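Regression check, (R)-mevalonate case 319:
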Amino acid sequence: MKNKATGKSYAKIIWFGEHNVVYGKPAIAIPIYSVDVTATIEKIQNGQEIHCRYFDGPINEMADNLLGVKTLTNHLISLFGAQNIAFDLNIQSKLPAERGMGSSAATAIAIVRAFFDFFEVNLTRSQLLKLANIEEKITHGNPSGLDSATASSNMPIWFVKNEINEQIDFNLPTSSLVIADSGIEGKTSEAVSLVHDNVVDEPETAQPLINELGKIAESAREALATTDDELLGKLMNQSQHDLAELGVSNHTLDTFCQIACDNHALGAKLTGSGLGGCVIALAKNQTDAQQISTALRKAGATQTWIQSFKNYQFSTGEA
Ligand code: MEV
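Current build output:
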């Protein structure tokens, strides 16, 4: 056992495929390196209790909305027989919660990695995702697993629930995604159950939308392979239209997408569960990205980030 260990993870952005991924259709998602979570575990020499500084008190007194994280942490404590070891678990997160950026999954991934590092035990990727799912199931109800898969990856991924989780490489050296936070909370569990209700109550309208969103993700993968950024932009606009039809957009997100397109974005859409959270816009170059970011901030975005595609690295294979 070490005296101190850390685990890291990233924010995720779903480029194509939110919601349809719950129904077995494909998605493309990317980790955002600049928006990360670090979990640190440090032994307390004279302490008797497990502290959890980020959550402001002992782990068993965590707030109810952190039940998932609390359950996962307690699970890891029993897994490693660590009930009598005094340590401090400190989580530093740059992710805003409930904004479609995968805050809960990223926290879970960072915690699992920190525990395995602290106890010096090898962690496989499937073990990591299974453990993170303990938290995600409690927080989101019926997660596809896409958030954890992306938060733990260092490359964009192509994902089909329970089937495919593979890294994809593409070459878009000058383009970037502008991410803008509306400042409005969007609860994943609410959005997922709203779409579920639509699929059950109005299958003749909702199911074709789910199918089409899956087809859009497939076309986007082909557009990435041929470096067709104009087509990617169009596919983003089509996704936004279909997600709005499914009922998970709102006036602010629609307006942000329109403003992005009025400021040279090739396309724009909500990302994540919707009902609030963030929009993403595809910019052809850095100048356009800056212009889109400035326009969205003027329109009320609480934060913006610009993610270029230059820096993605293939994984070294570690979990
Ligand atoms: C949430 O980030 C993405 C959704 O597709 C739900 C899921 O994949 O579990 C809305």
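Comparison notes: The radius of gyration is 20 Å. The chain has nine helices and nine strands. No diff flagged against the previous build.
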